[in-house]
Specification:
Elements (H helix, E strand, L loop, with lengths): L3 H11 L8 H27 L3 H29 L7 H11 L1 H7 L7
Helix pairs in contact: 1-3, 2-3, 2-4, 4-5
Length: about 110
């Protein structure tokens, strides 16, 4: 679901060693970009757990649409914050974890800095 494109953009935009007040805003925007795709995945998984394969299959075309929307949304973060934005990666990771823990887990942010 989340491909290397998203992670590469995330790293490009977000990981620097300097502190900044933008971490809260960036975390909000990261959550906003990825939430629709995560929610769609949750719906598909829920249908599959209930043996409602046909209902899950009807949602599959939306996955590509949501992935494209996510790419566009995330690309807009580069424009909004600029590639040179300096962020504290630990603070940003914690903000994302607090605001959207499922997305934090998918992006595997705990593995950075170790």
């Amino acid at each position: 679901m989340f491909n290397k494109f998203f992670i590469a953009l995330f790293l490009l935009v977000c990981f620097s060693c300097q502190d900044s007040d933008n971490t809260n805003a960036v975390a909000d925007d990261v959550c906003r970009c990825f939430t629709p795709l995560v929610e769609l995945n949750d719906k598909i998984q829920s249908h599959l757990k209930k043996n409602q394969g046909a209902a899950a299959e009807r949602l599959l075309p939306q996955v590509k649409t949501e992935e494209e929307n996510g790419k566009k949304c995330f690309g807009s973060l580069l424009e909004k914050y600029g590639a040179e934005t300096e962020l504290n990666s630990d603070k940003l990771s914690q903000n994302i974890k607090n605001k959207c823990p499922k997305i934090h887990s998918i992006l595997k942010l705990d593995q950075f800095g170790k």
